[in-house]
Amino acid sequence: MSLPQATPTISNEEFLKFRDFFYRKTGIFFEETKHYFVDKRLVERIQATGNDNFRSYFVMLRFETSGTELQALINLMTVNETYFFREEYQFTCLVNSILEEVVQHKPRNESIRIWSVPSSSGEEPYSLAIYLLEHWPRADDYNIELVASDIDTGILERARQGRYDQRSIQHLPEPLLRKYFTKLNGQYQINADLRNSVEFTLVNITDLAQMRGYRDFDVVFCRNLLIYFDDTSRRIAAESLFNALRPGGFICLGHSESMSRITPLFKVRKFPEAIVYQKPR
Amino acid sequence: MALIRKTHTTPSDGNNRRLPRDRQGLLRQLEDEAADIRRWAALDLAAFPDAAEEICARLEQETQTSVREAMFTTLIEIGGNAVVNGLIPLLRSEDAALRNSAVEALQQLPDAVSPYMATMLEDPDPDYRIFAVNVLANLRHPQTPAWLVQVVAHDRDFNVCASAVDVLAEVGTPEAIPALNALPERFSDEPFMQFCVQAAIRRIQGHDG
């Protein structure tokens, strides 16, 4: 009879070793306070991959050519959820800092083009629309084009319909909910004006040929996407985003992502509200 | 004004390009005066794996970061022997940015780099050997710890060994410990080595304290 296997444990040195590696690969840094969070997920993957200790698992993780296990671990260590006004400080940065700089170099008759990719079920592009209308005093002075893209046709259809449950809208102030949404069978549907103001398109940003149609954007929101790519795809995606921006255009990544770890193509810009990346002029 | 919707964002069908996209045409465009044209040529050359040698040869003359990056992206996509053969000589370049980009590109081509690694680690130039160790720092290849142990056991240069110890701290297995333990004696006039080795062994063993 075989004895049940003991649950693997992660020593402090092993935590530090893993933390250094994971930070270099992803840009995500775990504070000491996240020890338990990290350990729990590491142990889950150690067991799922048939390893019985951290050492053997780490060797596998480190040298597996396909990168599949690293990807599984990234998925587990990151929380992929979307809701209205998620990471609101970046929207604040958009209206307070980024757009003010964009319009300094833009004639009044030229549109401001903003791209949300991946748009998922639409929370981000609609948040952008609401934020611009509510918080950018010069919104009426310019034509603003909002393009939202995703690789998943099903999620794009949901985005076009613009129907959300309570979890998606939980961070929206009540007055904005009343102003821009209609309650419908227990869900909240964003109003037709806003639905019609966003162009939803299907795209794979690692496909350079497909991406050629995406040009002249002033600002791109590409949050929590690059982290899910392998090294080569991430590089190609960075090239695509560079091509999609106008000179001087800005890109906003997720809070744990860093363009500097992927490519030297962009300048780092530190605004009071957020760190973003800029295509050189 | 305010929010408007336009529907002109459509994927390119590839037929409306201004300049020819054939192999020879793209290689010619790599020498164009306009950086934008050179950059698009570099990206589109990914469709022509047999152009790897010419792209590598062009890297040292290219001064624009955006074009260079596009060339490296294409070379990584192409991969294989011709790319590795073209990138390895760049580890001797005096241009640090170019050298670092070459190291990063080689790290992403583990299978193609592996046949060259033993020779790279025996090069007479210690700086070059350090760059080879830098490649190993992020090379997803099962042979990596063994190559590093070889360095630690046999390389006569302090800086090369110290670089390898640093990498072994992360990727080393217990098999590396005897070679690591022997290092402080080989470099007895360098107290820093003792410190590095102790830190690396602690990490490899995974012991606290």
UniProtKB/TrEMBL annotation, chain A:
Signal peptide: none annotated. This is Chemotaxis protein methyltransferase. It comes from Candidatus Contendobacter odensis Run_B_J11. Keywords: Methyltransferase, S-adenosyl-L-methionine, Transferase. One of its GO terms (molecular function) is protein-glutamate O-methyltransferase activity. The keyword Methyltransferase applies. It catalyses: L-glutamyl-[protein] + S-adenosyl-L-methionine = [protein]-L-glutamate 5-O-methyl ester + S-adenosyl-L-homocysteine. S-adenosyl-L-methionine binds at N80, T82, R86, E124, D150, R223, N224. The keyword Electron transport does not apply. GO terms for biological process: methylation. Residues 3-281 form the CheR-type methyltransferase domain. It comes from the Bacteria. Its EC number is 2.1.1.80. Methylation of the membrane-bound methyl-accepting chemotaxis proteins (MCP) to form gamma-glutamyl methyl ester residues in MCP. PROSITE patterns: CHER.
Automatic annotation (TrEMBL), chain B:
Keywords: Lyase. GO terms for molecular function: lyase activity. It comes from the Bacteria. Residues 1-21 are annotated as: Disordered. Coiled coil: none annotated. This is PBS lyase heat domain protein repeat-containing protein. It comes from Candidatus Contendobacter odensis Run_B_J11.
